[in-house]
Amino acid sequence: MYIYSEKDKKFKRTLIVFAISIIILLTGIKLYQMYSSIDITKYNTVKAKRVLQTVKEKNNEDQTVAEMIENTTDCVVGISKLKDNGNTVFTQNGVSKMGIGSGVIISENGYILTNEHVSGARNSTCYVTMEDGKNYNAKVVWSESNLDLAIIKINMKCINYARLGDSDDIKVGESVYAIGNPIGFEFQKTVTSGIVSALNRTIIFDESNPTSFENNEQSINNSFQKSNGNEIYMSNLIQTDATINPGNSGGPLINNNGEIIGINTVKITSAEGIGFAVPINVIKPILQKLEAEGEFEEASLGIFAYDKNVIPYLNSNIKFDTGIYVAQISLDSAAYRTGLQIGDVITKVDNVALEKMCDLREYIYSKNVGDTVNLTILRNNKEKNIEVRLSKK
Predict the structure, then answer these.
(1) Residues assigned a catalytic role
(2) Are residue 182 and residue 255 in the same domain, yes or no?
(3) Stretch (H or E) spanning 53
(4) Strand 149-153 to 111-114 pairing
(5) Do 238 and 337 fall within a single domain?
(6) pLDDT tens digit string along 80-130?
(7) Residues 210, 190: contact at Cβ < 8 Å?
(8) Higher pLDDT, residue 168 or 249
(9) What is the pLDDT of residues 179-234, one digit of tens each?
(10) Least crowded by CB within 10 Å, which of 172, 219, 343, 362?
């Protein structure tokens, strides 16, 4: 029988301690690997990738917006009613001395969109300064006082021209950028940013002093006649808090895609951050005809009308939900001869529903002199159809 010696017992205890130590060591290594894999390598790597991806997307977005703005500013020009004796119309105090405003090239054929109060009325002459400082004589080929819009033309091919967006698709709160020449050469092509603050705004200004615009909250007589023969109502305007200064007039208001959604026209001087632009869609039929035919002969219904956004300023007793209210009819127009009456509400034209005055203008601009249109009207709450042959304005 073998008897364990003290030496054997000591060796056995040492072996057990060694085995336990190995187990503890292996367990520790395993736990460390699990911890490293889950809490450090896997988690932090995924988190880092997400952060880098977010930063990359943000940088790409900023770069895209910057490139978009740069591309559009290349199409912005200076416009003056007076010819400069030097190399450029951009001079110190140019806005006050020379009536400098802005415009934007919208066609390779040299068509430029601006405000009528910048360029002057149809068939008048103005002067355009391009990005390289060269001056060009320009002719006003179309203008409309009630929109404060004009299209002028220079005799040259334009490599850079802006894209037109869809002003019916814009939403309150979306980002916009106004581009123009607010003071003179030192500040040409200034870009300001903001949002669309509101849609379908109405303002009033004095036709005898086009640059003296008045707040749209001004009270006026409840009459369809202009109180002094000079008041004009501009409706369906885009309101924005992007800064619009006097020299910015005629410059573009663009969206995040670099598309023109409006033409800057006026700001309220009695408040900060309230400026207005004319929606771009109304100009599209005119530009299409100019491009195709080289001229635009404007057809007319021979009426003066208002939509529901303007009527409250004129007569608070008149109520209608949709359509265009006929306020005046030219006595020598086809509309008068076909029986259209003051007080009729035109709800459709050729079955196209009318919500805003711009809807009617845009549709009639797309027609030719001599075309016949079918008007759906409400008279004494009864629907009626009238055919009108469009005449020359």
Answers:
(1) 117, 148, 249
(2) yes
(3) helix 43-73
(4) antiparallel
(5) no
(6) 887 654 444 444 444 444 557 899 999 999 999 999 988 999 999 999 988
(7) no
(8) 168
(9) 987 554 555 678 889 999 999 888 876 554 444 333 322 322 233 334 334 567 78
(10) 219
Amino acid identity for residue 133 in this structure:
G
pLDDT exceeds cutoff 90 at 62: no
Domain membership of residue 304 as a residue range: 297-392
Q: Is 25 exposed, middle or buried, given 0-12, 13-18 or 19+ CB atoms closer than 10 A?
A: exposed
Residue 276 and residue 329 share a domain? no
Q: What is d(CA 305, CA 157) in angstroms, rounded to the nearest whole number?
A: 39
Residue 25 structure tokens: 């060591």
Which residues sit opposite 300 in a β-bridge? 391
Token look-up 């320009």 returns 138
3-state secondary structure (DSSP) of residue 135: strand
Amino acid letter for position 368: N
Assess if residue 193 is contained within a domain. Answer: yes
Q: CA-CA distance, 266 to 263, in Å (whole number)?
A: 10
- Distance (Å, whole) CA 261 – CA 112: 15
Question: Any idea what DSSP says for residue 379?
Answer: E
CB 314 within 8 A of CB 222: yes
Q: Match 């529901």 to its residue by tokens.
A: 308
Count of beta carbons in the 10 Å neighbourhood of residue 373: 17
Burial class (CB in 10 A: 0-12, 13-18, 19+), 51: exposed
